[in-house]
What does this fold into?
Amino acid sequence: MKITFDIDCTPDEARAFFGLPDVKPMQKAMMDEVEDRMKKGLDAMGPDALFKTWLPAGMESFEQMQKMFFSQMGQGKDE
It folds into this structure.
């Protein structure tokens, strides 16, 4: 024998029926905090900030990196 019950209720009604706490205020506070942190983090993802991170000393470091790369490429020819 198999018995099936279909209960039509909202999540709030089910939560109240089972005696579970309402977590909406805590969830809203946490989501607001996450949103604030993401907005602050977006400033570090701007083009100017990324360029400064990738090339901290300006173009001199890029030129040094090129020289090092080309010197390594030149060593492979001799062998």
About this structure: The mean pLDDT is 82.
